[in-house]
Amino acid sequence: MKDAAGELRAGLWTAAGAFVLWGLMPLYWHLLKAVPSLQIVAHRILWSTLLLVAWLAWKRGGGWLRATLAQPRLAWMLALSALLIGCNWALYIWAVNAGHVIETSLGYFINPLLNVVIGVLFLRERLSTPQWASVAMAAAGVLWLTFHYGSFPWIALGLALSFALYGLVRKLAAVESIPGLGVESLYLLLPGLALLLWGETHGQGGFFAGWGAGLVALLVVGGALTALPLIGFAYAVRRVPLSVVGVMQYIAPTLQFLLGVFFFQEAFDRDRAIGFAFIWAALAVFAFDGWRRSRRRALAPVA
Prior knowledge:
By secondary structure, the chain is mostly helical. Helices cover 82% and strands 0% of the residues.
């Protein structure tokens, strides 16, 4: 029991650390605003791939890639998930450095509810009445932002959709989290290197000369900041109930939202507040329904 309690505590702290790091990442990417967004993404791919492949080789030996891809259909499924997560990274970094931090937080607030919709459409899952109410309230919030704020929240929906579809593919792919991420990173490595070479030869790069040692170091460390929270998250979900992780995931968009309002001082007027209020209410109903269901299962007599 003592060991189980220690594992749970370690998992909780690791999950909290991963979500806090994700939530504070806009500050890090803001330090790199002098670097073109696609160059940041390319460096993020390069250095995170080197870190992940080295970690997997150390933990599992040189045959980890062959063993992972030996499973049927896994190669093309991970290629698709790599494309989705690459698009998500590119949109997110561009949005942060273009002054849309609040809208990126909206995307990750919407994401859990979009996961529910995808579960209904693709996995034939059934929703409870509170879950349908949550989806309806979130949709009302998005429509309000579209018609009253004056622009369609395409950044938020693009981030939410790309990450939700990524989650769907990874759910269907029979592979562990870290080896799967390693294969995805290798798929992205060649396009990433091509982007880096194109940037260096067309005046948009400066890694070897121009950006300075400070920016170069930040780009390299950015790879570690990409991989470490994902490794930590994979560690945590094996030790912490998913219902708890589901609630903790709101740490990241909450921190992003607070940074957008108070640090980056982005506009947050009455119309935007009303749209967010619909979505926060939807999340509250969704979280309460999930908590009530998990409590019922825990209290149900064992047959």
